[in-house]
């Protein structure tokens, strides 16, 4: 049985111009210990799918699915109280833009300890020790000092490490990383990716990596789902996807990699529009 199984997920938002369908019947599964990459350009519904799974979309969203189960638990029928026992403990998420996700009014240590208060029975002293342990595990220097720092007193890379520490605080079975290297410089991006993969290997947790970067996919994933405009275009193991992509949109993404450039400019998705439209017509 898959750790997470979602079938025919649809999400619509109420807007001033009427309903907008952000996801149109997508399926996801991820097994224990697996790294699944969900890839596609901005607006393809990657983050919406995971926020729907977490129950974090606003009230303007209408979510339907034939199946939405985590370890056999039906996520569609959970009460808010039941959901709080799962989200943040068994399923955790690293959000985009750590500076925006951390509360500017509280220290890093306070925010890390908050998750432990909710989901564990540790004493105050034990929680403090666990916070220091978490900060060390994600490579934050001088954790005794940094736990008393506010987000604005830390670099973007350090804030991202705090977010990762918060996400793994309760040893989740599934970690969702939503564009975890956005707005970080190249050196820090590599450090964050290496950290995530080490944590995944050491703990055996499942990891869903949301990204638009095919280079990240090649480095991290076991299996890949390619999305475009709220639909799944292709799903394959990572080696098959890179060696023999089947869908024109997947080929467009790969062709846009700088190392695959053959002319004076990189191709765009519009360059593949005709073959893409033909493929959609056959779907």
From TrEMBL:
Pfam families to which the protein is assigned, alphabetical: ABC_tran, oligo_HPY
Single biological process term from Gene Ontology: peptide transport
Annotated Gene Ontology cellular component terms: plasma membrane
Gene3D superfamilies for the chain: P-loop containing nucleotide triphosphate hydrolases
GO terms of molecular function: ATP binding; ATP hydrolysis activity
Lipid bilayer topology: Peripheral membrane protein
Keyword Membrane: yes
UniProt keywords, alphabetically: ATP-binding, Cell membrane, Membrane, Nucleotide-binding, Transport
Highest taxon, organism lineage: Bacteria
Localisation: Cell inner membrane
InterPro entries registered for this protein in UniProt: AAA+_ATPase (IPR003593), ABC_Ni/Peptide_Import (IPR050388), ABC_transporter-like_ATP-bd (IPR003439), ABC_transporter-like_CS (IPR017871), Oligopep_ABC_C (IPR013563), P-loop_NTPase (IPR027417)
Family that this chain belongs to: Belongs to the ABC transporter superfamily.
Protein name (record): ATP-binding cassette domain-containing protein
Originating species: Pannonibacter tanglangensis
